[in-house]
Design a protein that fits this description.
The complex is a heterodimer. By secondary structure, chain A is an alpha/beta fold. Chain A contains eleven helices and 14 strands. A six-stranded mixed sheet of chain A has the order 6-7-8-3-9-10, sandwiched between helices. Chain A has a four-stranded antiparallel sheet with strand order 2-1-4-5, with helices on one face. In chain A, strands 12-13-11-14 form a four-stranded antiparallel sheet, with helices on both faces. In chain A, strand 7, helix 6 and strand 8 form a beta-alpha-beta unit. A two-stranded antiparallel sheet of chain B has the order 1-2. In chain B, helix 1 packs across helix 3 and helix 2 crosses helix 3. Classes of the chains: A alpha/beta, B mainly alpha. Chains A and B meet through helix 6, helix 8 and strand 14 of A and helix 2, helix 3 and helix 4 of B.
Chain lengths: 291, 122
């Protein structure tokens, strides 16, 4: 669906992305994760050609997207609107989006406006932060683009509006399957929406994995050190903590059924590492867990 | 409900939710199981994850696919689940209970007495 190869981007002398290679399959929901400044927004803007790359290729269904309106009108990026649009009314912004996106659905936009209870006659600058975000979310959802990307979609939203967005997203994804990329900091809240996650770290794609697989091969082991040690000898340890006489060790790698049974029999507690934590361990710089 | 911090994957939990419904009799043989999209909506999970749970049950012969209609509970599903859970109970749940009893210095005789009491002396 989307195929990125050897993509490089720097701002002046600062490298932001180095040799990014990514192949996304159609109709999956991807989570794009990375620490602040890891280049998530840069990557998304390169995909929509809002930024110029230094080198590399970005293809949508085989077609290079650069200066290719036929490809670009099928890609939408929902992100905070530039200040140049802040004096426009929400409905004027939707009208612009309708021109920009080939698959825009006006009726669906109206439905979303009602669902979110948005006053479209107000200028953006007169709307609350949350309502400004809602304008952006509606643009993304109603674009119905084959590749729909959301950059930090829940900025300034309270929990009930966030959940409404997740529900609407899943509902529309069911009716109109498309490829969705969500970049976010609120990882645990959306972890279950993702089918795959992509982690950017040190200018590169540090990890790209099916969410279920990822969670199936990461564990906390908590118990006496001498009981845990034989099992973790060969494993990749991403986290260590001591808690009294108890050792808590985070590992990244599969455990066999025998190993699990041994640990349980020894009274070692076994639990999953939530995605948010896993992300922190894997992207911590200069630590043993870092990728 | 789904427990994100459990050591079980979300899709395994999806499968267990359906198994529990069948065990409780809320979902009967030859009845239609909830669809991936229903699961996705109610539990706010990716439909592919829900689908993985349903497919796992299909592989185990607990559900079966009707083309274009969805997943249905196979005849004998309840029996199958009971057998599977019995084995699990004996292999995992009970040993865990006994380990905890050991830690708490409760003897097997005391446990047996307590069980009898709970069951009204039967």
């Amino acid at each position: 669906m989307l195929s990125i190869s050897n993509l490089n981007k720097s701002y002046g002398r600062t490298k932001v992305l180095t040799d990014i290679n990514l192949d996304l399959t159609a109709n999956k929901i991807y989570g794009l994760l990375g620490r602040n400044g890891a280049g998530k927004t840069t990557l998304l803007k390169l995909i929509t050609s809002q930024l110029l790359r230094n080198s590399g290729e970005i293809r949508l269904d085989g077609e290079e997207v650069f200066e290719n309106s036929r490809a670009l009108e099928r890609i939408s990026l929902a992100k905070e609107l530039p200040s140049s649009l802040k004096e426009k009314k929400a409905r004027e912004i939707f009208a612009l989006a309708g021109l920009l996106y080939k698959d825009w659905d006006e009726e669906y936009k109206d439905y979303l406006v009602r669902e979110f209870n948005l006053n479209t006659k107000k200028k953006l600058s007169k709307l609350s932060t949350g309502n400004q975000t809602i304008v952006v979310l509606i643009m993304g959802l109603a674009s119905r683009s084959g590749l729909t990307m959301f950059d930090e979609p829940t900025l300034g939203l309270d929990a009930s509006v966030r959940y409404k967005f997740y529900n609407l997203l899943l509902e529309d994804y069911e009716k109109h399957p498309r490829t969705i990329i969500i970049s976010t900091h609120l990882i645990d809240e959306v972890a279950n929406l993702f089918e795959e996650v992509i982690i950017l770290s040190d200018q590169q794609v540090a990890l790209r994995e099916d969410v279920n697989t990822l969670l199936e091969k990461s564990f906390y082991l908590s118990g006496r050190e001498d009981l845990i040690n034989p099992i973790i000898k060969e494993k990749r340890i991403i986290h260590r903590e001591t808690f009294g006489a108890t050792k808590i060790v985070g590992i990244y790698g599969y455990l066999t059924a025998e190993e699990k049974q041994y640990l349980k029999a020894q009274g070692v507690e076994l639990s999953n590492i939530p995605l948010q934590k896993l992300f922190v361990y894997l992207t911590e710089g200069n630590k043993e867990g870092a990728i | 409900m789904l427990d994100p911090s459990s050591d079980k994957s979300i899709y395994v939990q999806v499968a267990e939710i359906i198994e529990n419904e069948i065990l409780l009799g809320n979902l009967k043989e030859e009845e239609q199981a909830p669809s991936t999209n229903q699961f996705a909506k109610v539990y706010q999970i990716n439909p592919a994850t829900a689908g993985k749970g349903l497919n796992m049950l299909a592989d185990e012969g607990i559900l079966y696919k009707k083309r274009g209609l969805g997943m249905f509970v196979r005849e004998g599903a309840k029996e199958k689940i009971i057998k599977k859970r019995q084995a699990l109970f004996l292999k995992e749940t009970l040993p865990e209970v006994l380990r905890e009893a050991d830690r708490l210095e409760i003897t097997v005789a005391e446990i047996v007495d307590y069980i009898k009491e709970l069951r009204g002396g039967v």
